[in-house]
Sequence to fold (202 residues):
Amino acid sequence: MKLLGSLTSPYGRKVRLVLLEKNIPHEFLNDPPREPGSLSARVNPLARIPALVLDDDTCVFDSPVIAEYADSLNDTPILIPRNDTYARMRVKRWEALADGIIDSAVVVRTEGLRPADKQDPEITARNNKAITQALAHAAHELGDREWCEGGALSLADLALVSALFYLDLRQPERDWRGTHPNLAAWFARISVRPSVQASFAA
Fold:
């Protein structure tokens, strides 16, 4: 199978981390949809990344669907609980929180790329406030635990670390580490995992 993404896409990083943690053989293709000849623009009807192209050419999109599909392929490890509906909800809620941080960060970046006279400060402020609130919620929920949910690595951790990497990339001025030292300590520990380091390589 082929994972179409980019080295800066946080949604792509999340699903790549799932594949790497579960040792699922795949080929990663750096394939931004805006580039001429992009495969993702041809095979994904939404013309977005990430997209997972299976061996029979089925295209799986978008990141929550890819992550859930990939997690179902083997049990080592199980990243989304299967037999506990409440635990499953909590992991998926962490994913939604992380994706929401990314969504708002993308809006802020997009707004900032517009000509100054076309930017809407209210949109920027509203989305930055959402990020701030989401980070505070994440820090509160994490507390002093080793993992976001349960007693082992889950999709919750992979989604959140991807969101925080994206904040570092697009909002380096945001001092989330100073505001939430427990998140900073958790992030430092997760960041050295081999899968996370591998996710930065083409």
Remarks:
- The longest strand covers residues 2-5.
- The two ends are 16 Å apart (CA to CA).
- The mean pLDDT is 97.
- The beta strands are 2-5, 27-30, 51-53, 59-60.
